Amino acid sequence: MKISDTNLVIQLKKKNRRALEFILEAYGNLVYSVVRQVLQEKSCDPYVEECINDVFLSVWNNADSFDGTKGCFKGWLAAIAKYKAIDYRRKLWRQNFLECAADRELYDELTTENIVIAKEDRQELLAAIHEMNKQDREIFIRRYFLCEDIETIAGMFGVDRNVVDQRLSRGRKHLKEKLMRKGESCDGQ
Amino acid sequence: MDNKDFCLEDKDILKLLNNVPFGPGELPAEEEMPEFLRAKLKKIIREETKQRSYRRTVKRGAGAVAVLLLIFIGIGTVSPASARNIPVLHSIFEIFQGNSDYYKGYIPYSQLVDKSVTDQGVTLTINEALADDSTLIIGYTVKSYRKIDASQLAMLMSFLRINGGLPQGGGSSGEYLDDKTYVSVSHIYYRSPSDSDQLQIDFNVEQIMDVKGHWDFSFAVSKDELQKRTLVIKASNKVDLPEGMVTIDKVVLTPIDSTIQFSGNYKDQDAATKAMDEVVYWWFVFDDQGRDLMSGGGMFGGTNAPEGKDFQGEAKFQAVKEIPSYITVVPCRFPVVSADEAKANNPAESLKVIDGNYPLELPQGKMGKLVIQDIETADGETTVRFTAEGKAPYFQGTHLYLKDADGEYLHSKYGIRRDEEHPNDFTMVFPPLEAGKQYSIGTSRMESIDFMEDLRFKIELWQ
Q1: B156: nearest CA in chain A?
Q2: Of B161, B270, B297, B394, which one is least surrounded by beta carbons within 10 A?
Q3: What is the ipTM of this complex?
Q4: For strand B400-404 and strand B111-119, is the pairing parallel, antiparallel, or unpaired?
Q5: A101 vs B154: CB contact, 8 Å cut-off?
Q6: Of A189, A130, A9, A78, whose CA–CA distance to B8 is shortest?
């Protein structure tokens, strides 16, 4: 069967290896460019290959996570590439310079609300993120999963950075409230 | 942050990423993937997908650097304090004098570099540098046309090459002089086969914060002065640690820091390499009076390991004024992320409202406790005086913090200061607490630290 953009997702979900090979051929340059954009220093070179490999295998293993109603495959793939590259950058810095100040800043933002999440809370956390309104959710994911800075997010949404700060604060409070409520109901049982 | 902090699995994150519609404007101009890489990936995909299950394909080879012990310099980044004028200085390290005594020892050996490059409205100045056989210290200043976010400067040192080689690790601390001026000291650990007294530094910076440009520096730093004052003590301790058999090769004492150099063989290299993603290893070092000495970082890995050994490494700690007859090392490990704390039912922190009644005890779990003796606000700052009791008082003391009524952290103006006469007594200085507002003082309960006292070992320094 010939793989094309039309049947790509279906075949990928059916674990047709040719679908993944098609992604490499059709979108390999995109993934490479996004990863290089994040891991651009020479010191990151040895990790680029490993990271790209990780992107493709992650897509292969989690094809069911793609939701075609929310956007196109290309955009999803680019977001994964960015997320993975940021994760590698973080690991690289953890190895070479343990404390990555940008990480600490993000960590501080969450610990400000005492959002420390246990594995058992995974489903509640996901549910709480999904309960956020569309824009708050996107801002939250861009900030905490894609490490985008507040100015960039503000520019993207055409708002002042204070608005983004407020949305993030609202998101954190929402999470805290939801996770605490769950904790209380468990305690009460 | 990473997905470990959120405790989410890969599939969860990938689901969440559906909510971030990447438009064409966000995608970079496409670069051609090198053909060799495409061919290699194709091969990997073919092999991996045969099994239809995920497993990591790229493993670290025996020769790859597997950094297993790596600690950030214990001073930390000083948070933005009120803007102040740049004082007349003989050395950039004088700026940090208020921070701690740590930098005092640098001044006599500091070499003036004083080179500035301006590009895209951002000026990077390399003020001073000094080096010994394993550490390069650089004092630099960033001046920008807009507000500086110091958190974005952490990557700067990745552009540095020492005798053509990459640094092995390090850390930075710094201080804002105003919103647009930031001074920093970076400690960079390196290994170089060169016997020369000079280190050749090439620092070709391609990006400062999010500003791309070119800030190119090339200069030499002499190791001569510090080498003359370096004492190398050979050791031969053999230590049986969970991850491997370790031989302590030597202890190197210089006026700027101290280093334990070691080498060894893994018991199970795969397990040890995997563990490094989850665990940070820390060696607590105590002098012959039982005082814990400030850790200055360290690492170990397989690159350049001596013949017959799987790895070599070093653990750094503060410079000593007088050579102790021996030092004692207590290995310790703790998770990279603190999610484990949340899993436990005990609260992760000890937090008490500041109500003017002292002493105030803040338990730190198995590690001990902090006892707040006094909190005083005067001359535009609040000083907390406290005692640390327990297994590693200095380390415990660094975990003190203040919070306002909203739970926001108040960052210490300077690092922790130890009373040399009474080594368990410390002071920390914060921005002034406002009268009428409620504040709390707290510390970590340190539940996740595995302080492996049964593995303690002694290194004789008087031989």
Answers
A1: A41
A2: B270
A3: 0.86
A4: unpaired
A5: yes
A6: A130
